[in-house]
Design brief:
The protein is an alpha/beta fold. 27% of the residues lie in helices and 27% in strands. A 5-stranded mixed sheet has the order 3-2-1-4-5, sandwiched between helices. A 5-stranded mixed sheet has the order 8-7-6-9-10, covered by helices on one side. It is globular.
Amino acid sequence: MSCILSIDTSTNVCSVAVSQDGACIFSKEDFEGPNHAVNLGVYVDEAMSFADSHAIPLDAVAVSSGPGSYTGLRIGASMAKGICYGQNLKLIAVPTLELMAVPVLLREEVEEGALLCPMLDARRMEVYSAVYDRSLREVRGIQADIVDADTYKEYLDRAPVYFFGNGAEKCMEVINHPNARFIKNVHPLAKWMYPLAEKRIAQEKFEDVAYFVPFYLKDFVAKESKKLL
């Protein structure tokens, strides 16, 4: 097992965790965001101080790789890459939607043969989503969906589908199917990252620190600033 520093800034929530031997041993979270530029450095310092005070050497840094907030992903990736350079650590990228499925599988009684559909809000009725089975095998890849009653009908006709994440909460009245299941208050958090990060360590699936960029899915669109009168 390895000691991993995990970072997630893919949504309004900022979270940092340290895991060792298949368990989370330190976690800090801020749900009042987005305050990533203010809080992330503080949380990382606290996490690394915790590891140092317990004489636990870090082996790798895991970061949520997207999709999600363009600015949030950039902040998280920059911090992770800086730590890897400074500490000579391996970098692990964890897909945000896959990360969201971990607490559902650990805490919920998911029906046999069911599918998981994590969703991130992409404004209006658009979401970033993917479809996984209970082993987190990808049934349908990550894409941006404009959600209506038939968007996921192919999967809902086959099996129960669990929808969760901040994108799912706005779709509850739109997706009206007897096989639709909705789980509230599921966020991508650093404390759930360790099973996926450890799997990638076992597979020696590391990122090139110099060239790693998050998976934004869509290009960044800057808002036009309001001119002062």
